[in-house]
Amino acid sequence: MFLKPQTTKAAPKHTVDPANQPWVEKYRPKTIDDVSAQEHIVAVLQKTLTSSNLPHMLFYGPPGTGKTSTILALSRQLFGPDNFRNRVLELNASDERGIAIVRDKIKNFARQTPRAQTVASDGKVYPCPPYKIIILDEADSMTQDAQSALRRIMETHARITRFCLVCNYVTRIIEPLASRCSKFRFKPLDTSSTSLRLQHISSTEQIPVSLPVIDTLISVSGGDLRRAITYLQSASRLSSSTSPPTEITSQDIHEIAGVIPNPVINSFAKVLGVDIIDDSGMDVDDGGRAKGFDAVRGKVKELMREGYSASQLLSQLHDLIVPHPTLSARQKSQCAMVIAEADKALCDGADEELWVLEVALKVHKFLA
Amino acid sequence: MSLWVDKYRPRSLDDLHYHAGLSARLRSLAASGDFPHMLFYGPSGAGKKTRITCTLRQLFGPGAEKLKIDQRVFMTPTKRKLDVNIVQSNFHIEITPSDVGIYDRVVIQEILKEIAQTQQVDLNARQRFKVVIINEADSLSRDAQAALRRTMEKYMSNMRIILCANSTSKLIAPIKSRCLLMRVAAPNTAEMQTCLQYVAKREKFDLPPEAAEEIIQDANGNLRKALLVLEALKMQSPDLTGPLAIAKPDWETYCNKVADMIVQEQTPSRVMEVRAKFYELLSHCIPPTVILKTVAERVVERVDESLKADVMHWAAIYEVRMRVGSKKIFHLEAWVVKIMSLYKQFVFGFSMDDFEA
Amino acid sequence: MGRLFILSENQTVAGLGRSTAGLLETPVHKLKEQLSEETAIRLSRPVAAQAAAVATGTLDDQLWVDRYRPKRFMELLGDERVHRETMSWLKEWDYCVFGKRRGLKAKKPSEENPLYRDEYRRPQEKILLLSGPPGLGKTTLAHVIAHQAGYDVLEINASDARSGQVVDDRIKPALETGSAVGSKRPVCVVIDEIDGATGAGDGGAGFVFKLISLTFDRGKKRNRAGEKRDSKGKRPLLRPIICICNDLYASSLTKLRQHSHIVRFTRPADIYLSKRLREICDIEGLRADSRALTALVGLSRGDIRGCLNVLQFIKGKNQDVTENVLREAAAGMKEGDGSFTTVLGNLFAPLSKKRVKDLAMNELDESRYVGRLSRDLEASDSLDKIAWGCLEHYTNLRQSDPSLMRHQKANDWLTTYDILSGTMWSEREFAIMPYLTYMLVPFYPLFQERGGGRVDRPKAGWENSVKTKANEEIYKSLARCVRTTSNNQSVVYRHLMSNDILQLEFAPLINRIISPPLRPVNSQVIKPVERALLQRLVEIMVSLELRFVQETAEDGQLVYRLDPPIDVFVTYDGKRAADIPVSRYATRHLVAGEIDALLIARQAEAVEKGKTKTLDFFRGATTHEEADEVETPESRDIDGKLMKSNEAQTSQAKKRPADKIDIADKPPVDFFGRPIVMQTHTTADIPGERPQKKFRVSYRFNEGNSAAVRKPVKVAAFL
Lengths: 368, 357, 719
Prior knowledge:
Chain A: It is found in: Nucleus. Chain A: Residues 1-20 are annotated as: Disordered. The complex is a heterotrimer of chains A (368), B (357) and C (719). With 368 residues, chain A is α/β, with parallel strands linked by helices. Chain A is built from 15 helices and 5 strands. Chain A has helices at 23-26, 39-51, 67-87, 99-111, 144-156, 175-180, 191-205, 211-221, 225-241, 250-256, 262-272, 293-306, 310-321, 329-347, 352-366; strands at residues 57-60, 88-91, 132-136, 161-167, 182-185. In chain A, helix 11 (262-272) packs antiparallel against helix 12 and helix 12 (293-306) crosses helix 15 (352-366). The termini of chain A are far apart. Helices cover 54% and strands 11% of the residues of chain B. Chain B has helices at residues 4-7, 20-32, 48-60, 104-117, 142-154, 173-178, 189-202, 209-219, 223-236, 250-264, 268-283, 288-302, 305-324, 328-348, 352-356, and strands at residues 38-41, 68-75, 81-88, 92-95, 130-134, 159-165, 180-183. In chain B, strands 2-3-4-5-6-1-7 form a 7-stranded mixed sheet, with helices on both faces. In chain B, helix 2 runs parallel beside helix 3, helix 10 runs antiparallel to helix 11 (268-283) and helix 11 (268-283) packs antiparallel against helix 14. Chain C has 719 residues and is mainly alpha-helical. Chain C has a domain at 463-602. In chain C, the strands form 3 sheets. Chain C has a 5-stranded parallel sheet, sandwiched between helices. A two-stranded antiparallel ribbon of chain C has the order 6-7. In chain C, strand 3, helix 10 and strand 4 (241-245) form a beta-alpha-beta unit. The N and C termini of chain C lie far apart (93 Å). Chains in contact: A-B, B-C. Chains A and B meet through helix 9, helix 12, helix 13 and helix 15 of A and helix 2, helix 5, helix 6, strand 7 and helix 12 of B.
């Protein structure tokens, strides 16, 4: 497993310049042992490698925790590079996945009896169990109809086909499907393993990244390893594109992630009447709590002109208020309520300025 | 010869008047050969499109400005035919999803697949990839965004996507994390002043700073609007002297009139008059959200301090309801009645609770 | 057979004598004879007939509705004026259908209306539209009078498909052959339930459209072509068409209404109905007290079909007709019937005393409104329309409510209704449907008022959407203009074309940009400042493809209209914005002239350029860049030509001012253009001031661009 020979044969239609290849793809785990921080799942799946018995599976959990990587790595290990093509069908949301496709493509694939071919071209022996795997990535975006159509297919072809559903929200999978699968919950990655992984990548790519930067990456991405890696790649692109390559700073990471700089949030909060205890002790503008409606509205307008995204603004405001040392619990909960309402409205497509203003006015009132 | 908005639109990154840091970054990215997917966001009129065009020019040279418009036919899964106008050059292709309504997913998938499968044939081309620009990306349906997600990774080798949106709130997280975010803030007053004076100088007339100041105030960070207003002003009173009347768009004036009506009188018959006015506005294709916001802003200016927060609160509430519902006028009217009722209660000093009891 | 309801002889004579002397195929005296004969027969053996019917029972399997359907004009029940109106319309066809033999009498109406002349002497409206609530006998009327007037009926009803196809396949052949298969009588097409189930998916619009074109357009063509029928089988409509509908205002009938003679049915007086029911009961041997029958009529609101069904039902159970039995049998009948206007009215007004009595409700029942109204609403099947109606009506009520509390609540219900129904349609969650009705019921407790004024049919929403569509079209045409220009010229306005920007910023401001304060003076004597202004204006307008198009207004004056008419976007409530000066005719004339001059100049330039470039190309010296330069003006040229061929009207309008430029040194024109137009034509033609441009062919190679126009050209053309 460790001496993985270079697969020269695998040259698909889209040859990707390795320099341009997304690191997310480049550093996808090759074996399930490489999967970060999901020990339980890895332990269970290890067994299937030896026993060659696999149930239908349902992987769920927040984005970027390695669901797709795990199943891809597993099937690669099961079938080897040669059989991978004809034994595994991977479908995701960018493919057409209406009920018609389920009826034709998936059913046809499920029906075929796999050919036994255990000797791989690279001379390694793969277990190559007598079934095929159908991976339905982002299964929660499938329609109800399509999911119902799957029910029967899963049962009738269970002998020769295994399904693996991958989704973020297990509640969006209809119950009959979920009950046919053994469920695996992927938990958000802990800081240490994310940090290790990022350091590994940065050392392989030979870019100097300091520890604080990695910490920033982790906090910004919130347990989503894919986001962290993507940000890291973007940052390294930016830094290397300037004529003398500059070092990556935490500020770059913030900017790439669309995070609003702290001073901006702080001054907004201050207008709303939240006391800011700054590490630096000093604050830039000493406006303090605004007097009335017009001041609050002025501030909101100013923020909107800067083009910050409303949902980001609200979530950062939330992160500021909730752990705040001097506000009372009641005030905090009131603020959280109104922020939650606004988030719902924004999801429904409401106007950003109106709702930021609404939150600002409400918070301003609660803290009076 | 054309409108100033177009005539003085910067064509290359070096011509840009503000956000120098951003321009520098774009320039270096374009030069590096490792160009990522990008998402430009910021308020309307801040210059997102301009920056995108400039970046393209930087990437591909002047060839990117040779545009042609194709009419393409797409088939929906339900076998309906869609005619879509597509703007493209040899190096890039531009889509506006709102043109195709609910079928945006089909169109986007088709176009992206097609682009991804064609290699750049021109050996002299500066870049090996083509660029797909998606305008108004925040109006993409969830489906279409989900479809984009995987495609962005898969076809990285010969395609880059540039999204252009007013806000990132309506984009799903996977898309945001796959793009390099580029925030284009609205120009501040000084920057706008520079731009206006630049245009005035090139047009060989004298723009009094006070006049410019007034235009800028009115435009609220929207440079495009400022330039249009300037040109209108210049057309209407060529010497730009004397008291300047900034031409507010007519719908805005009309909205203000509606707001005044609401504050003046609160009766059912007034509600009916206001409704007629709303109909007039809606039939002029003014988006209902804009109507509600503009009227609310004006009402807020004319009521007592203690009512202001309530007015905005209900505006926010009814605005989101309006999005969910389908008959816009219902919600506009509900808001008006609400505000009238509030106003009356305030004036006569009795509260809603007394009535309910 | 029952021919039962016969008006007294006096009435008949009076009725016929008054107005319909020439309308009946059988003369009055004969009819009278017939009548008296029949009466005699009937009187002689009423009991016998009745006994026979009951005893044999052979007829019992027939619905009473059919058995007692009137067979003759005289048997018809209801408003006689309606019947006569229908009949006289049908009689107007006589000249056309039956020829002169009977036409002599039918001439009268066309003489009355000297303005209208039809070569076939057909009535002015070629379609008759009968409308009214169900069960009043519209279909029967149509059949009866058609027979009476000597026609055979071809009936198309809801069971037939309603598509344009049907018009072609069934109606047209029938109308053209003039008579049904195997019959000598001419055919009369009766289209029943035309507002009802339409299959084509377009709400029947296609069907109705075809129908209208059948009558209207063709008739016109015939007028021009003269007497002879042309060989292509395009024949005028020579047979009457009768359409029947319940809801006259159904959206699919909008077009039809304008082209048809509309006859409205009203409910016949209760007394006639109950009299008729009485007679039927007598024949059928059903014992009935007249109070019960009156109650039945009241219950059914004049729907005689419903009454007969109920009676037959009672008869089947061998019961006597008493009020209680009736109530039992009629349970559910007509409950929640009716068009949405009735339901809407019910929402805002309590039940009338009479209705309460008819339904035999007590105080408690009357106060229970929720179930009753929601049932009504559910049955009405047009909740959206009712919601619109509520919106438009509620502000008329409770004007004195000081805090607007009721209105506020009403609005809460309305918005909730909208959110629910919006979700229902967009998510296809039809499980929500049952709840929707309850969203509108609260209007009753909030606003019900006796005599609160009639509730009008909601129309503002519809009007608004029509207007919005028209304006959207204008936006689109503006966007299209801009798009084509940015295709052809080096100007890029595309970034202005996204919807919001277009509507909110571009449209109002461009209107101001194109209306500078110009004085209407001759372009030769203009001041330099103004000349610059004018020049700039012209250039902007050309670059946006905005034009002033000359048109004749309704009062005969010539006006210049902006095309596309983007000035609607600064026009609110019919008034233009105050800060935009009204551009006068003369100014626009001046500008239009300048625009055309510029276009002509550009064209000429393009041709010149094209020539040299072509030569260059053949020498093999062109580079791509040069070729692209050519593209710009030349494709404009092509555009111009296409436009000319397509829209003859606009090109004419364009040409005329173009010629005027050539006489620009003449004194300024007055406002009435006609003589001047004549003049210009002569001046332009005779001296041949404008060089006759030869048509040149150029070929350009345009890398990767398929927009070039290809046409076969001989090599000689290039040399």
